[in-house]
Amino acid sequence: MYRIARPLYFPVTSDTVSYYPGINTVKASLILLVIFAHSLPDGMIQYYNYFFEMPLFMAISGFLIKETTFKYGLRKYLRYLTGRIFIPWLIAFIIYFPLQLGTRSILQVSVNDFIYPFYHLWFIPAYTLGAISFYAIIRFKLQALPILIITGVINAFWYVYIRDSAIKDELTQLQFLGDKRFYAYLFFFLLGVCLRNKRINLRFSPAPLFFTLLSSFTIIALCIQSKVADVLALLPYLFFNFSLAVFVLLYVAPLKIFQNEFMRFVNKNSLGIYLFHPMIVMGIYYFMGDSGKAHTSMFQGFLVGVVTIMLIVTLVWALQKWAVTNRYLLGNIKPKGE
Description:
The chain is built from 14 helices and no strands. It is mainly α. Helix 2 (44-63) packs across helix 10 and helix 9 (206-226) runs antiparallel to helix 10 (230-252).
């Protein structure tokens, strides 16, 4: 039976509620962090941001999927996703496709352009494959723990050997397996799914989790400053992101923290904000004459991020005013019966 420790100083946990306002706030915060990550020039701030951002985001994405989502089967679920995310993703894919092509001719388009989509668009295929993986666990009555262990090993392999390599170009037999980031974050996605649907038995109090967070982050910082080999930073990386995901999903999720209209708006429209903010970032840098961000300071990058947030929120707010753009660009569709 699924249980978590519930000390007196933290009486509300995610096994006692069905609504998770804290998740909405954290998810909205991560979307804003994504915008800043894409706005800032390369540097340590950006590096640390990427270190935890996507593992936590994928864990939250998995946590939001309930087992009852598939009560009408996989086909029905994929039909729902078609309107909710596939059509907006396809429109974004078309918008960014000229940038994907670069200097190539349209006649040089290959299947790799779809398997490895432009920049940030990998997330939607990864999310879909993660959801299908969970459906397979349900459909074939698979044990979640061995699958989590396998995906954890894959994650470790990615971190040490594949993270910054061009392995898809060197090992052509792997090129049709999809974007390598899918395998990097599948473990965290399934961790979120399994926690929400009580597929694994975890007993953690918040204090040890928080201590693990602080200690593992300290070790990570020392590893980065000392420029040690990735294999030595692997365990603190895994401990940190595992502890962060579990702490947020079990203890932050039920809390009504930082609830306000702006964060609710960002959370509700996270898909549209995520898909279309890069064109604003790239447009700003184009007009600055520094498309490669080679001459941009961190402070300037931060200002670009602030302006981008203002513009993308305004754009999404405007797109909501028309039923067609609200549905096909933002994926805001109402379930039947509403």
